[in-house]
Design a protein that fits this description.
Helix content is about 70%, strand content about 0%.
Length: about 140
């Protein structure tokens, strides 16, 4: 079932939030494909888009965390590396279009939603708790 972006996922950073929304869109594109009607080329293209966009997003997100002196940056970078490694392994080791699509449905939403909810939102919590930055004033375009 496709997942919808929610403002409750917001990091109060316009560019990062826009990237998260695009990742949701890409993950949902994989989710709604009909396995019996999807060609290998279509699925491969979507997975490549998702993978490349995710890597680009991780770089931007890490630069943002560095700019605010986020204390869990190193831990977060390791999580990003683990996601990229797991996705690379998935792409290398899954044979057949239906198996690949099924796994992509599971892992894209698992990584996407769980990573945002369990890890990215810690950034907002830290900003609030540290009182170092007013979130309403700290929306970067």
């Amino acid at each position: 079932m496709p997942k919808e972006w929610s403002e409750s996922y917001s990091l109060h950073h316009a560019a990062i939030d826009a990237q998260h929304q695009e990742l949701f869109r890409l993950a949902n594109s994989v989710e709604v494909l009909e396995p019996k009607e999807t060609t290998k080329e279509v699925l491969a293209s979507l997975i490549k888009q998702f993978f490349n966009y995710m890597r680009e997003h991780f770089v931007d997100e890490e630069l943002y965390m560095q700019s605010i002196d986020y204390p869990l940056l190193t831990v977060h970078q390791k999580q990003h590396e683990d996601i990229i490694t797991a996705m690379t392994d998935l792409l290398k080791n899954t044979k057949g279009i239906e198996a690949l699509q099924t796994k992509m449905k599971i892992v894209s939403h698992k990584w996407l939603v769980e990573h945002i909810l369990e890890n990215d939102l810690k950034i907002v919590k830290w900003l609030k708790e540290s009182n170092s930055i007013e979130l309403d004033d700290y929306v970067i375009l």
